[in-house]
Amino acid sequence: MRRITVAIHTYEKALALRTLLEGEDIEVTLENVNLEIPGFSSGVRVRINESDLPHALRIIENRELFQPVPGADSHIILVPVDLSERSYKAAKVAIDIAAKQKAQVVLLYSFLDPYIAGNLQFTDSLSYEIGESGARQQIQDNATKLLKHFSDRIKAKIKSGELPLVRISTEVVEGVPEDSIVEYAKFHLPRLIVMGTRAAGTKEREIIGSVTAEVLDEGRFSVLTVPESTPMEYSLTPKNILFFSNLDQNDILAIDGLYRLYGGESASVTIVHIPRKHRFSDGAADKALRRLGDYCSKNFNHYHFISVPVSHTDGDKEFAELQQTHNFDLVVVPNRRRNAFSRLFNPGLAHKILFQTDIPMLVIPV
Prior knowledge:
The chain is α/β, with parallel strands linked by helices. The protein contains 14 helices and 13 strands. 34% of the residues are buried. Mean pLDDT is 77; it is low at 35-41, 117-133, 203-209 and 340-346.
């Protein structure tokens, strides 16, 4: 197995990086740069197997996500629920993934204190008269009962063998849904967040208030969206994947994240690049796409890669034509965290796909 140098640090920093990488099951060796006079070395090489490079880069580029955090548990898959059928579909997909990943599923439900919420409207399931005395406790108790009923429905399917055997736990928290999801994820660092979404036309009308969009904007968590049009019997094991490329090293990180989630299953991956103006010439972009495809074919051997350049002049039309031709069952988007101004006036690709299509989407932070 070929070994490569991923970083050169002082001894203390190299030791810390080795500890971090080995904590993620990456084999690491340290080598002195100055082999003639080791005691006076100017640095230490951190060397790994070439096949581990995408995973190692993802850890190094997002080190804060992999540092030990009190209460963190990367073996959970988080499913925020609103007790609707689309949440049930999202939970079913999460359970299928958790069974393969040997993870547990956490169902998260948030409620609002009426005195804080003011005139905000509750969901239908919580629309009952509340007296001033003990109002908050009454809402919390009712939310807990509703979530238990939702959880019991899922557990009954597990007991009957209709769903795989996975540990299910529940959490009821107080707060605005999108804030509650982000805060819970920051503390527990779930492996994946699975969220049910409305149909495309409905999502466009609710673009300002979309909980899923707010979680995507945080840009620090892997999120899988499951549209409500997804058939109830559907089990998300993608066979035909569309991957949007930025033509930088973050593509490798995102494909590695996809492969770690679904790499045990063979699939066709179509890599599409929608160019930004003046960044690449057509020839340079085509060459970079081919090199990316060649690298991925060599290192992610369960997948078959196809590279397709797309013009920036009519990307939406070409995307629709690609979908009609290939019938993708999953879209993968590398996602960078962006400031509020950029999100408002120049929404990212993940936003556009979320509101315009009904294809499950995996958004991976890079």
